[in-house]
Amino acid sequence: MARDKSGGSNAASLALRIATVALSVASTVMMASASTAGSPALASNVSYSDYNSLRYSLAANVVSAALQAVAVYLITTKVRGGSWEHEAKAANSLAQLVDTAAQVLLYSSSAMSFAVDDFGSCGRRFNGVCKTAEEFCRRVHVSGAISIAAAVALSVSLYIEDVPFSVSLDGDGCKSGAGCERGCHCDH
Description:
Largest sheet: 2 strands, antiparallel
Strand content: under 5%
Mean pLDDT: 77
Helix content: 55-70%
């Protein structure tokens, strides 16, 4: 029982796109919850909203989730053939643009999250924010890791769409012989 080349990869790609949306939302939630009560070393509470780069990271994850939801819609509603062929090509081009924007946002979001150890205050380096606000930094780092996972899921999704593959569950996926035009080099 061989699986259809495009069906299996399309389903896997769609699943990874949906995972990208979910991971982007999870990263957003983790970043939004990144705050801690003041400690003696820090004169006040520490929150993601205190840092422009972390606010960017949160916004980038929100936009990425929205963009990937649009991409899922575009991919699942493609109409092929007939008079709709032009619209299908336009939807595919728009989906590629959306994918590129989402990747840029996810990778930059994670970079901002992992840089929390080096953040400063008013242009000066604030030494030890992660030493005094460990829970805050842990949440920011986890948010960055989830953003990386979302970016990897999206990248794998795009790779699966571009590289055809098939899965054979009964061992007969590649059979050819003399005169077979499929290019396989197995027995029929």
